[in-house]
Every structure is written in structure tokens, then in C-alpha cells.
């Protein structure tokens, strides 16, 4: 018997809800990478709700999306601090000892970059725990548990053959990414950074819609999802380097105002500029592969 779109989306939701809820005890224990994994699970669910929105009743789906956005935002503050701390530490390990700066200078830079971000992570993780203990999260968790098997579907659309509905969704999401890629050659350099970020987010949405469609469409969905992931990864590397460089410049300004030597900050910012350029050099091939060129 041919699976319906409703049956297929319930299966995809069940898997994604399980991923999210499985991370809660890990986050509470502050297990390595747990905040990241719970945030990804939250974003994946929200993305599926957007891509397959035609299957859901509009009001409850919009409300669920807003609650998932809230949770992702809370987790994101901690995750962003965690990423910056790790990235700054890697930069200092690679470049701090290659410079002519004293151990005292390196220590000052480490305190402003790594230690400060670790402190931000600790504070943000405490906020995550407060959120997980809140009534708002408990209500979200209860609702997700219900959605795991009985989401508010539009009955007529849910009866459409899954392959037909999911195929249309993947094509629409793919066309969205390709439309943004085509715009990329027409914008100014100042606009390009944000457009590349939009391409990355759109590629990620396509990746997640492909993941939800694997059991329905099979190898074609897996292949398209892999191509979308490649583009997302390339542009994610670029975005991380750009944001790190901007953060270093800001912290360098603070250090300079305090009378500290800022030479090492310039070295680190230069390294991130190189990393951003290297990531961007991989973008044309990744964009072409997604388009099947």
C-alpha cells in the first residue's frame, strides 16, 4: 500500500521529536556537544514544519514553530559562546606561539577571548537549565510528545500520496536555494555576506526536508540532501570565520582602550580572514554541484 503524506510526515516528526527529547538529560548534565545537538534537533523540527507546512493546520503549526524558535534561541546563546571559545582557543594554539609576544601578552589575549567566552557559556548554560525547568518548556515538551504520533494535520492533504507531496516540497526548497544563488552575482560586496548567509540557511532547510523525505523518495532525496549539506557546510565555515574575525576586532578595540598590545589580535583576525577566503573559494563548486552542473 502506498504511504500517504500524513503517514510519512508523522514518521519524520516522530524521529525528530525523539532526537530533541533524548538530548534534554544530556544538556542538563552539560555533556559534550549536547547543547549543539539539542539546538540542531530543534532547528530540524522547525525546518520540517516550514517545508511541509501544507500538511499542518496553520494556527497550531505556527504556534509550535514559535515555541521551537524560542527554545533554539535559548540554546543558541550557549552554543555560540561554546563555538567562539573553541575557535579562539584553536587560533591561539596555532598562532600564539608563532608570534614574538610574551607569555603575559598571550595570557591577556586568552583571558579576553577564551576565558570570557567560557564564562559566557557557563552563564548561558545556566539560563538553558532555567528554561528547561520552566512551565513554558514543560508545555512544549508535552505538546511535542503528542505531536510525535498525532500532529494537527489537514486531513485531505494528509491523504495525498507521500511521494507526490514530498517531491513537490523538495523541488520547491531546491528552487529557493537556486534562486538565491542566482542573486549572489548581482549584489554589492557589502550585501554579499548576508546573502551568502541566507543561501546557507536555505540550503540547510533543503537538507532537512530531504532527510524527512528519505524513506519516501529514497536515494534521490539522500543525494540532494548530501549536496545541500556540502553547500551549507562551506558557507557555515565562511560565516564562522567572518563572525570570529568581527568579534576579534571588537575585543581588540577594548584591549587597545585598556592600554594592552593588540598585535596578536591582528594576527588572529588575519588568520580568520584567510579562513573565510578559503571557505569562499569552495563555494562555486558547492553551488554548482547542488544545481547538478
UniProtKB/TrEMBL annotation:
Domain CHAD: start-end pairs: 2-292
Matches recorded under SMART domains: CHAD (SM00880)
Signal peptide feature range: none
Name of the protein in question: CHAD domain-containing protein
Organism whose genome encodes this protein: Nocardia ninae NBRC 108245
Organism phylogeny: Bacteria, Bacillati, Actinomycetota, Actinomycetes, Mycobacteriales
Amino acid at each position: 500500500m502506498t504511504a500517504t503524506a500524513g503517514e510519512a510526515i508523522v514518521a519524520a516528526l516522530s524521529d525528530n521529536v525523539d532526537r530533541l527529547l533524548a538530548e534534554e538529560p544530556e544538556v542538563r548534565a552539560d555533556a559534550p556537544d549536547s547543547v549543539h545537538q539539542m539546538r540542531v534537533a530543534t532547528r530540524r523540527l522547525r525546518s520540517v514544519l516550514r517545508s511541509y507546512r501544507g500538511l499542518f493546520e496553520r494556527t497550531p503549526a505556527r504556534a509550535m514553530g514559535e515555541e521551537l524558535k524560542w527554545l533554539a534561541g535559548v540554546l543558541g546563546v550557549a552554543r555560540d559562546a561554546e563555538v567562539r571559545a573553541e575557535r579562539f582557543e584553536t587560533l591561539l594554539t596555532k598562532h600564539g606561539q608563532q608570534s614574538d609576544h610574551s607569555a603575559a601578552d598571550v595570557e591577556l589575549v586568552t583571558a579576553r577571548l577564551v576565558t570570557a567566552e567560557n564564562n559566557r557559556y557557563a552563564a548561558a548554560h545556566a539560563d538553558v537549565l532555567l528554561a528547561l525547568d520552566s512551565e513554558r518548556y514543560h508545555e512544549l515538551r508535552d505538546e511535542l510528545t503528542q505531536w510525535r504520533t498525532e500532529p494537527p494535520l489537514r486531513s485531505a492533504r494528509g491523504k495525498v500520496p507521500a511521494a507526490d507531496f514530498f517531491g513537490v516540497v523538495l523541488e520547491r526548497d531546491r528552487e529557493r536555494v537556486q534562486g538565491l544563488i542566482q542573486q549572489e552575482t548581482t549584489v554589492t560586496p557589502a550585501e554579499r555576506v548576508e546573502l551568502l548567509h541566507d543561501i546557507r540557511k536555505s540550503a540547510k532547510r533543503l537538507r532537512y526536508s530531504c532527510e524527512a523525505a528519505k524513506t519516501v523518495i529514497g536515494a534521490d532525496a539522500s543525494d540532494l540532501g548530501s549536496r545541500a549539506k556540502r553547500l551549507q557546510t562551506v558557507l557555515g565555515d565562511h560565516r564562522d570565520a567572518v563572525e570570529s574575525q568581527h568579534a576579534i576586532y571588537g575585543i581588540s578595540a577594548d584591549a587597545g582602550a585598556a592600554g594592552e598590545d593588540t598585535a596578536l589580535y591582528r594576527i588572529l583576525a588575519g588568520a580568520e580572514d584567510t579562513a573565510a577566503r578559503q571557505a569562499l573559494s569552495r563555494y562555486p563548486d558547492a553551488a554548482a554541484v547542488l544545481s547538478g552542473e
